[in-house]
Amino acid sequence: MNRLLIAVVCASVLAPGQTTINGGRTVTGAWDASGAATTKAVKSGTSLPATCSVGEYYNKTDEVAGLTLHACTATNTWRRAAYSQGTSAPTSCATGQVFFDTDTTAGSNLMLCTATDTWTAVTGTGGGSVYLVAGYGNTTGLSSGGTSRHYTPLGEVQMAASTESNSQIALPKAGTLTNFYLRFQSPTNATYGTSGCTVRKNGADTTLSLFWAGDGTIKAGTDTDTVSVAQYDRIAVSCVNNADAGTATPLQTVLELR
């Protein structure tokens, strides 16, 4: 009888099977799962637990594939282990975090937390912005009354032309035009009207325009004024003087291509 009991116990110990562990366990030695058929190392579900301690992980299965793993970085604080994405960046962040904004201009989606709670857009598809600069070689200026119009090519210094096709440049990449800047000499003692310069795309005016009104020699747009462009779109700057007297001379324009 004793021999039979020993045999049954040995068989139950040696036979392979599945073990369920109830209650807490602390492992002090090494666990090697490299030969396991499958492994599930973290808890899974669709809702992050309300409480956690540093070092815990959770696999949130209803997230975007590849972005499901969350780490407990402080007591009761979960952060996605990979980068986050959505239509607006979180209000708080820690330096080094990355966020992908799905609701912005293509090529400007990536956001980097450069300081506590400060997101900075990593713009451009080719390593940064391109600045298109035009210097005007035509020093005779624009006649008043809108009787003359200059077109100038961005990216070089040369005489402005009266024919737009002679002044257009093809953009090297797709992106966003913004931060339009204009430096000029304007007439005095004149009524200016709509005198200024406008960025044109493929022969049509865009919303990027700056106007002078005798209140200075520099006008600058902002990065909230933008125009989307495709690679090889043809761009030029058109300037006209609608003042009732005198000449106005554009000296330089700058445009950022993100």
What's a concise summary of this model?
Helices cover 5% and strands 38% of the residues.
Question: Can you walk through the features of this model?
Answer:
The chain has a domain at 130-257: Jelly Rolls. The protein is mainly beta. It has one helix spanning 2-14, and strands at residues 43-45, 57-60, 69-74, 77-80, 84-86, 98-101, 110-115, 118-121, 130-136, 149-152, 156-158, 169-170, 175-185, 196-201, 204-211, 218-220, 226-229, 234-240, 249-257.
Give me the secondary-structure topology.
Layout: H1 2-14, E1 43-45, E2 57-60, E3 69-74, E4 77-80, E5 84-86, E6 98-101, E7 110-115, E8 118-121, E9 130-136, E10 149-152, E11 156-158, E12 169-170, E13 175-185, E14 196-201, E15 204-211, E16 218-220, E17 226-229, E18 234-240, E19 249-257
Parallel strand pairs: 1-2, 5-6, 9-11
Antiparallel strand pairs: 2-3, 3-4, 6-7, 7-8, 9-19, 10-18, 12-18, 13-16, 13-17, 13-19, 14-15, 14-18
**Helical coverage, percent range:** under 10%
The CATH architecture of the domain at 130-257: Sandwich
Spatial separation of the terminal alpha carbons: 86 Å
Q: What proportion of the residues form beta strands (DSSP E)? A: 35-45%
| CATH topological fold name of the domain at 130-257 | Jelly Rolls
Which outline best applies? elongated
Q: How would you sum up the major sheet?
A: 6 strands, mixed
Taking all Cα atoms into account, the compactness measure Rg is: 33 Å
User: What series of H and E elements makes up the topology?
Assistant: HEEEEEEEEEEEEEEEEEEE
How many helices does DSSP assign?
1
The mean pLDDT is 74
Name the assembly state.
Answer: single chain
CATH class of the domain at 130-257: Mainly Beta
- Give the helix/strand class: mainly beta
Low-confidence stretches: 4-15
The count of β-strands is 19
